Amino acid sequence: MNPRSVLACCLLAWLLPFVPAAQADEPPAAFTQASDGTDFYPFAIDEDRLAGPPAQTALNHPLGPQDRLFVKQGHFYAVGPDGVPDTGDDVRVRLFGINLSFAANFPSAAEAPALARRLRALGFNAVRLHHLDFHLNDPQASADAEPKGILTTGPYPSFDPRAVERLRTFIQALSKEGLYIDLNLRAGYRFRPAIDGLPPLDEGRSQLADVDTPIYVYEPRLIELQARYATTLIQSLGLAGNPALALVEINNESSLLSAWQSDIWHGNDWPRTIPQAYRGILRAQWEAWIGRRYGSLEAACRAWDRCGDPDVAALPAASLFGAHAASPSLMQRLGNRLERGLEQWLPRARGDSAEPDPDGRYAQDFLEFLTQMDRRYFERMRQTVQAAAQAPVPVTGTQMSYGGVLNFDSQAAMDYLDDHIYIGHPSYANGNSWQSEDWRIPDTSTAGAGIGNLLALSLRREAGKPFVISEYNHSFPAPRGGEIPPLMATVATLQDWDGLFFFDYADEPQPRRAPWYFSLSGNWGQYALMGQSARLFRQTLIEPLAGQAVLPLTHARRLALARRGTINSGTLAADLEARYGATPRLAWSRQIAEKILQDPAAGDAPQPALADAAADATPDGSVRHDAARERVILDTDQIWGVFGLLEPGESLSGRFFGLRLAGGPKNQPVQVLATPLDAAGLERSQHILLSLGSATRGTQPGSMPPRPTALIPYPGKSGWLTLEPGPLSKGPSGQLGTRAPAWLARSDVELGIPLPTGDIRIHPLDGTGARRAALPPEAYRADASGGFTWVRLQATARTASPWYEIEIAPGLRPAPASTRSPRPPAG
Questions:
Q1: Per DSSP, what are the bridge partners of residue 69?
Q2: Please, what are the domains in the chain?
Q3: For 394-419, what is each residue's pLDDT tens digit?
Q4: Nearest residue to 764 (alpha-carbon basis) of 231, 54, 40, 35
Q5: Where is this region: Disordered (predicted)?
Q6: Which of 50, 584, 590, 626 would disulfide-bridge 456, Cβ 3.0–4.6 Å?
Q7: Under DSSP, is residue 257 helix (H, G, I), strand (E, B) or coil?
Q8: 625, 615 in Cβ contact below 8 A?
């Protein structure tokens, strides 16, 4: 996550009143209706006391020498009891992780065990330590000042001993609870020339280097400082030889390729990447590259048809798709600022391997040069990391979205590939993410348009390497944001990926009590589905797809695609569709990966037609997508879920459960997930957890009696939403950092169970996972035969909860599925 988007969430914390610890309060007597007619009920989760069916604590064990990770056969494995990689006792490990940002990485010694237990209870087995380097602590601050970063205001890298000790203690607590570490190196530090002993930036510019412009990739002094930072960080945190260190990321969301090829998110990055005092260093490298490629500058200028240029070796003044470049830069800028996740809004162009014209040849050469510079930087840092770690810890360079198809080349020596994805990312007024009272989100869903974006990530995987998504979210206040944890886990499981890291838990060590920007803590309608999503991915409750499509991607095509647009503009997807018929929907039926052909002379190998490229379901029907209803259904013996729109009068059925709306005149979104709590499958289970995700809101400031903040249309922008402004707001939007209590939207559905009423008992669970009183008899309604029961879970506010524990009477089970009607009766 770029700090310009994240840091805004930290700036308003002081505005909110102190909120006491959550309690397992009595349920409300009645629902509270929002202005759009949606019913809400207040609900608080006490994360420190969470136990019972929602808690996934049993998935983890304390980490030991047998848990050290390495790469084997394109996946992550633990070395096993013999402590030796590549032996018979190696164990496959999937990382289901969570991001921590800023101060959340530095809990006190008393807070660290509690935070680690909270994360374990949700089923996480890894933590991404993000933005350790953004905030700089004052070394003269009082002893009770809370550290927000690992560094001080001294010359880079000056470590804060107190922050180091806190994080070291926290890592020990995480390891004890079975959580690995994904260590981010350069994420947010902005080099300060006057303090760090570096050449000055251009006149009139801030003395802080921009956080996402990579002068540090090519400036030798900066590379040495980063190597010193990485070595000291790993050693100081006790991570040398420590099996808790699972992954290391060198550089978050930045590369030279990205800076020149695109202007994602913040405008034209390239001029900021080459300040005058630094330009000569990069130019010297460029001239050396030209000499190796062409033998002389004269030969290069003839190839480029630029011999009339008085300074033919000058660095480009603007980015490839910058302010003075031709389209698609305009659409890229608009598309990325409006909605980074909705790739289908952006232009698509097919790349080809045809010989470029002279101007295209110049662009191609400069892209190859930048690829080499990125690669040199990544490989130097990887060598430093693995030497400091005293182990071949898996390392990656940066995300695939930040460099695109040529990242396959710049990261050829990296151990795994990584990317980020957001559905419905907030868009801030005038692109200013610091603006907290003028923002909007698109009215979209993961199960609808967003599912194509998740599937399209499969086109960025390289055959033979682990694939990780280290940031994903559909953040507050998205009404259907709860869909993304289970659906991200579903796609990753089908594709047999290796790691998922939700962004984020929080930006401070204490749990939230109400929704807050990207935080999971406090967004209880999303939180409620996370534990079962962990089980889905880590225990493969859906079988990975058996078929594979390995798609050749030649060197020439990678260069052609990079010239035509960023990977987020759809160039790779369009090319693969044109050549092989491989659309993102192919990911419903086969595992997809790119075969990266490194030989520049290699041509495309013939590929058979992909007859299943337009599938909307897995071959066994265990996952089905209905685009018209923006709905995804999961249906196996180990998991059942419905995410999307239900129509009045419509009755869905699975292998065991049925689902329908309890009433209402219009379509309603549902987020329902069921998993067995015993060793049996759903059809034989006697103990089941059913979770209802939902929209979550904070309390509207100044409301009396308290009520949930309304989600309203953004003024003048059809299809966009925002929160209603507060009484003191100066803009059209309410703040994304909200007040407690949190409110959950009612999910007024009926659950169908093919059993007599007397065989079923259902308990709503409170915010600690403990049982409340069982649903009253009037919540159950038997059909005419008496053998099928419909249960209205949230008939009243007193029975409303995001979690329900279902008990089935022993020995009284329905006939096997093969002898039962495949659909429940409608009655």
A1: 78
A2: 39-60+94-274+315-620 (3.20.20.80)
A3: 999 999 999 999 999 999 999 999 99
A4: 54
A5: 601-623
A6: 584
A7: helix
A8: no
